[in-house]
């Protein structure tokens, strides 16, 4: 992956950034899910200062997360985000004054109700848990909060193999997406016999952060060259065709090693919120000057 620090001068010249898509956990937020936690859990105000700089420069921030609508809403309100994308792209929510307007990124669904209800009704989640016993489990407790678009799992599986198994057993309308490594001490998940634990979403085919960003850009009339994304997972790197550049925070590099090389995906030197600041701050002064 290209090192961002070596390419910022050219990117600053080429891109007119008006919209920043950022992942939450492991990216904007540090250990424990705090905006103010540095990589060693000591306090830092750098990520918050970067958000202030973007606001002063008139750059919109859009949160892009695997969290549910209710879980992302309060973070979006707190930091003044223009919009947020929940459940790994299943739902785009626009904050319009005190009101919200939701746009669904439905993908392929089956039957009535929400996408989550269709997935649950199909039995696909149970099929995967049986197939990968000891390697996959519900991402408790968050898997059991009310969801609309995706089923949340954790473990470590071969995504191509899992998707192939779904297709071969009548679940071809679904796919498994990798939302990054869960940083955890040994023994935190005793039911899993894996060395590295990832967060996975079982979603209708066609639902992703990438397709949600495409819908959002169309909704607000933003060109790809006016947008950048920051994240820590393969699903974040997958946004590359829809933005001018994707930046991966350093704590996400191990989990994105197998991501295909792309000319506009860059590795940051700093982790978590410090990496977010490293990615966005070079573009804020130029935007403010326009």
Description:
The protein has 290 residues and is an alpha/beta fold. The chain folds into 2 domains: 2-105 and 208-289, 3-Layer(aba) Sandwich (Rossmann fold), CATH 3.40.50.1000; 115-204. 30% of the residues lie in helices and 21% in strands. It contains 10 helices and 13 strands. The protein has helices spanning 8-14, 46-56, 69-79, 115-122, 124-131, 159-168, 209-220, 234-237, 272-280, 284-289; strands at 2-3, 19-22, 60-64, 83-86, 91-96, 99-104, 136-138, 151-155, 174-181, 198-204, 227-231, 245-248, 265-267. It has a 9-stranded mixed β-sheet with strand order 1-13-12-11-2-3-4-5-6, with helices on both faces. It has a 4-stranded antiparallel β-sheet with strand order 7-8-10-9. The longest helix has 12 residues, at 209-220. The mean pLDDT is 93.
């Amino acid at each position: 992956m290209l090192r961002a620090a070596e390419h910022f001068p050219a990117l600053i010249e080429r891109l007119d950034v008006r919209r920043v898509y950022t992942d939450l956990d492991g990216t904007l937020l540090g250990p424990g899910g705090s905006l103010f936690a540095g990589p060693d859990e000591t306090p830092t105000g750098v990520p918050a200062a970067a958000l202030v700089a973007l606001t002063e420069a008139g750059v919109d921030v859009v949160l892009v997360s695997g969290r549910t609508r209710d879980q992302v809403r309060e973070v979006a309100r707190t930091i003044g985000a223009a919009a947020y994308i929940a459940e790994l792209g299943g739902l785009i929510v626009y904050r319009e004054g005190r009101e919200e307007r939701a746009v669904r990124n439905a993908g392929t669904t089956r039957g009535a109700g929400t996408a989550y209800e269709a997935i649950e009704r199909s039995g696909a989640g149970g099929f995967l848990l049986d197939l990968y016993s000891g390697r996959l489990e519900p991402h408790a407790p968050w898997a059991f909060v009310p969801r609309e678009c995706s089923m949340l799992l954790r473990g470590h599986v071969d995504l191509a193999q899992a998707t192939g198994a779904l297709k071969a057993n009548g679940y071809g309308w679904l796919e498994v997406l990798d939302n990054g490594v869960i940083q955890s001490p040994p023994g935190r998940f005793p039911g899993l016999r894996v060395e590295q634990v990832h967060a996975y979403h079982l979603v209708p085919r066609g639902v992703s952060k990438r397709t949600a960003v495409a819908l959002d850009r169309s909704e607000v009339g933003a060109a790809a060259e006016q947008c950048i994304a920051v994240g820590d997972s393969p699903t974040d790197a997958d946004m590359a065709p829809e933005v001018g550049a994707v930046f991966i925070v350093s704590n996400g590099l191990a989990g994105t090693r197998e991501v295909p090389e792309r000319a506009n995906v860059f590795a940051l030197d700093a982790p978590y919120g410090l990496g977010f600041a490293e990615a966005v701050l070079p573009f804020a002064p130029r935007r403010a000057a326009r």
